[in-house]
Specification:
By secondary structure, the protein is an alpha+beta fold. The chain contains 9 helices and 9 strands.
Length: 279
């Protein structure tokens, strides 16, 4: 089993939702605005940062041009695409860098692993993570948030597995304008620090989480409900409320309102290969 920071978070947020998304492979058919905008920003950074054009980026995002791996992205929210590309343009030009998919092993469960998707590694081996932020957010709050955000641990552990002896991480935020017509604002980078001891604690947490998931896969299995934690609030707007807590063995296809989850890692592999050629 291989855990990403997304699957790690979603399991601890609610194991039942994790079952539906990561084991049954079901996601709501409609992609959230924030996700489409985030995909647009990261694809634009990778393509345009490596010398590609804005037109080429948009063609790939809307499905007019297949991605190099043959996948058609087919994003539909024009505002999300426009804002995502706009954020990327505010961050360009990028320093010489590569996007990487970095796997790290565990000391006991050798058949399990974790991985971090690293946006860019600069020539000086500093890891750069790109994020968008709303107009009300503050630098100090984001600095505080990253003190406990597991994404930092996943990326730093992955960087160490790539051979970087003392990996460092900075988070580069671009803030959306508070008024129409204003420009995106690029913040000063937020430095993120982890001690070797903190990283080993998280490595152990990830390993234990993988073992817990494997235990649930064995019993009760992926077609029977898993624990439902209270921090995942139910309500009429929850897209999973029709399948959550139900036996799902009768479904041979995703139920109405859902589609099969596309693995993000597979979606970005072609872009990483592209960067290796163009940078």
């Amino acid at each position: 089993m291989n855990l990403s920071v997304t699957s790690f978070r979603e399991f601890w947020d609610n194991p039942e939702r994790y079952r539906l998304v990561h084991q049954k492979n079901w996601v709501p058919a409609e992609t959230p605005f924030s996700l489409e905008r985030g995909i647009s920003m990261h694809v634009a950074l990778q393509v345009m940062g490596a010398g590609g054009t804005e037109e080429e980026t948009l063609d790939m995002l809307i499905g007019a041009k297949p991605r190099p791996d043959g996948r058609v992205e087919a994003l539909t929210n024009t505002r999300a695409l426009s804002e995502g590309v706009g954020m990327a343009k505010a961050l360009l030009p990028l320093p010489a860098a590569l996007a990487r998919e970095a796997y790290f092993q565990f000391p006991v469960s050798l058949h399990n692993s974790g991985h971090g998707i690293i946006d860019f590694i600069r020539a000086d081996e500093v890891i750069v993570e790109f994020k968008s932020v709303n107009p009300r957010a503050s630098y100090s709050q984001k600095e505080k948030d990253w003190n406990t955000d597991p994404q930092a641990d996943f990326e730093l552990l992955g960087a160490a597995a790539l051979g970087i002896k003392r990996p460092r991480l900075i988070v580069q935020y671009v803030q959306e304008p508070s008024k129409r017509g204003e420009d995106w604002k690029v913040w000063e980078p937020v430095p993120v620090v982890r001690t070797p001891a903190q990283l080993e604690v998280m490595r152990n947490n990830i390993e234990v989480t993988a073992s817990m998931i494997q235990g649930l896969i064995q019993s009760p299995g992926i077609d029977h409900p898993w624990p439902h934690l209270e921090n995942w609030k139910c309500g009429e707007n929850c897209p999973f409320r029709g399948v959550c807590g139900h036996i799902t063995s009768d479904f041979t296809q995703p139920p109405p309102g859902f589609r099969t989850r596309e693995d993000y890692l597979k979606a970005v592999k072609a872009e990483m290969k592209r960067l290796e050629v163009l940078v």
